[in-house]
TrEMBL record:
Name this polypeptide is given: Retropepsin-like aspartic protease
UniProt cross-references to CDD domains, sorted A to Z: retropepsin_like_bacteria (cd05483)
Keywords: Signal
Signal peptide bounds: 1-26
Any single Pfam family the record assigns to this protein: gag-asp_proteas
Top-level division of the source organism's lineage: Bacteria
Keyword Signal attached: yes
Source organism per UniProt: Okeanomitos corallinicola TIOX110
């Protein structure tokens, strides 16, 4: 199945980045779940001993900014609980874009494609699919939709990751406040 979407381009310090519209909203069912053969996500929180009682004080995840490209933060992002890569924290990107290097390290299996228009006006086709988990500090998104940009040198972490958080970008850190 082919999905046709327009994809924007962002330039940071002379580097070109694709900004990918969200093809599907990342599903974050919590830390204990299963996906049925029909693709439905089922929470297993009670079986795993997880409580769902709301905390009286919301958790704030404080993520250190490693450096910046121009004025845009670069942070460490952990995939599948074990592999960490630097990514641009891009509040203007709708999705999550990973590099070919990240895709290879994760043994990424594409499940779809998206057509993108790039800066020179040409149309390219990019692979899309899901990764088990993407984490930044204690904030984690499960079963996240990502797009692979084979020529990108660094990935982009956009709204597909942090859409359920209010954000505060400070000089040396980013704070995630669950909604």
């Amino acid at each position: 199945m082919k999905i046709f979407k327009n994809i924007g381009i962002a330039a940071i310090s002379g580097m070109m980045f694709l900004t990918v519209p969200s093809v599907a909203t990342a599903n974050d069912p919590g830390g204990c779940y299963m996906v049925t053969s029909s693709g439905k996500t089922v929470s297993l929180g009670t079986l795993c001993g997880m409580t769902t009682a709301p905390s009286s004080t919301p958790t704030v995840f404080k993520i250190p900014i490693k450096r910046r490209i121009g004025k845009t933060p670069i942070i460490d992002v952990t995939f599948n609980g074990s592999q960490t890569f630097e990514m641009v924290f891009d509040t203007g990107a709708t999705g999550i874009l990973i590099t070919q290097k990240i895709a290879q390290a994760l043994n990424f299996q594409a499940s779809g494609k998206v057509k993108a228009s790039i800066a020179d006006g040409s149309i390219i086709e990019l692979q899309t699919g899901r990764v088990l988990t993407i984490g930044v500090g204690g904030a984690v998104v499960n079963n996240a939709q990502v797009t692979v940009a084979p020529k990108a040198k660094i990935g982009l972490l956009g709204h597909g990751f942090f859409e359920k958080y209010d954000l505060k970008i400070l000089k040396d850190q980013i704070e995630f406040y669950p909604r």
